[in-house]
Structures are given as C-alpha cells and as structure tokens.
C-alpha cells in the first residue's frame, strides 16, 4: 500500500488587525481610561433638567386723563386799559388713575397782550412770573396732581404797554397733562 500524503487545500496565515480594528481598540482604551479616571476622582457626570410655571397675574396700563372746567366771563376782558389785568378761576381734575404733571401754554393773536396762569384761587394782585404765551407754566412743579384730585387755577389776561389802543386779540390756553416719570 502506498501512502499518500494529503496536503491541505487551504493554508491559514496570520494577518494583523485591520485599521478599523485598531481604531476601535484605541477608542475603547480611551473610554476605559476616562471611566477609570472619573471613578478615581469620585466625580459623576449626570445632567438634570426641570422646569416650573410662574402663575402670572394681569398686566394693565395706566390711564392719563384730564378734565378742565371754566366758566369765564369774557365781558370782563373787554375795554381793558394798558397795564390792566383781569383774573378768573378754573379747575383742573385728574380723571386718570395715575398722578400727573399739569402745565398751561397760551397763544395770543396780537402783541401787547399777555396770559398768565398760577396754581390756586385768584386773588386781588396781578400774577407774577413769565406769561404762558412766552413759556409754558408748570402748575404743580413739586407735587403732581394726584389721581382723582381737583385743583383750582387762576388765569389772568393782561394788556401790556405794547398794546395798540382800540385793538383786540383772540387767545387760547392749552392745559397739558404729562405722565410723572418713575
């Protein structure tokens, strides 16, 4: 009998790890090192998240409103002489819900006539200060007119020396409310 030698049809050969295997192995080593380091320091890496609701109320804006009441007798302003002045009272009511600053400005249709305004009831003396037709007059310079409050004001019409005899001039007085800045 003859012996025959059987040769393997396939040869096995050793091939080293692929590039992907090396990459995965290196990443695994880094992760293992990070886990060991965090375990050694006692640190934990957890992310917490929570939320809550604030029960809100209602938002509302303020109301700024003014009411002016006057019962002027215009015949008192007729046939005035140079240097003469006539004063009449009027009221201002803050009908809004916040305090307000109140000022009065005036326009006069001709030179030689002046309109002055002051806070308070009219007296027998001429009003001092700058005419409202030159610069607006602040009626409540230190304390604003409170919400719901009414104040009495005095309006004075004066014929200055520059007025031409026998002339007349129409005028308007504008009352302005301004919000008090916080």
Structural features, described:
The structure is a single chain. The chain has a domain at 66-179: Immunoglobulin-like (Sandwich). The chain has one helix and seven strands; from the N terminus they run αβββββββ. Helices cover 13% and strands 29% of the residues. A four-stranded antiparallel beta sheet has the order 1-2-6-4, with no helix packed on it. The protein has a three-stranded antiparallel beta sheet with strand order 5-3-7, with no helix packed on it. The protein is of the alpha+beta class.
Keywords:
182 residues, alpha+beta, Immunoglobulin-like, 4-stranded antiparallel beta sheet, 3-stranded antiparallel beta sheet, 29% strand
CATH architecture of one domain: Sandwich
Please outline the major beta sheet.
Answer: 4 strands, antiparallel
Can you tell me the overall shape? rod-shaped
Using the CA coordinates, give the radius of gyration. Answer: 46 Å
Ends apart, CA distance between termini = 121 Å
**Quantity of strands, as a count:** 7
Roughly what fraction of the amino acids lie in strands?
25-35%
Q: Give the integer mean of the pLDDT values.
A: 83
Low-confidence stretches: none
Output the CATH topology of one domain.
Answer: Immunoglobulin-like
């Amino acid at each position: 009998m003859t012996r025959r030698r059987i040769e393997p049809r396939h040869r096995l050969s050793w091939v080293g790890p692929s590039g992907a295997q090396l990459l995965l192995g290196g990443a695994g080593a880094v992760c293992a090192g990070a886990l060991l380091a965090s375990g050694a320091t006692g640190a934990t890496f957890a992310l917490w998240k929570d939320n809550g609701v604030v029960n809100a109320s209602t938002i509302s804006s303020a109301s700024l409103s003014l009411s002016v009441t006057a019962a002027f007798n215009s015949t008192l302003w007729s046939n005035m002489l140079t240097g003469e002045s006539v004063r009449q009272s009027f009221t201002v009511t803050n009908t809004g819900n916040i305090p307000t600053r109140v000022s009065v400005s005036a326009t006069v249709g001709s030179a030689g006539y002046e309109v002055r305004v002051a806070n308070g009831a009219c007296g027998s003396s001429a009003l001092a200060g700058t005419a409202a037709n030159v610069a607006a007059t602040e009626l409540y310079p230190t304390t604003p007119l409170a919400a719901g409050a009414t104040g009495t004001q005095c309006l004075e019409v004066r014929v200055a020396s520059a007025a031409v005899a026998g002339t007349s001039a129409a005028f308007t007085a504008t009352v302005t409310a301004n919000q008090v800045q916080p």
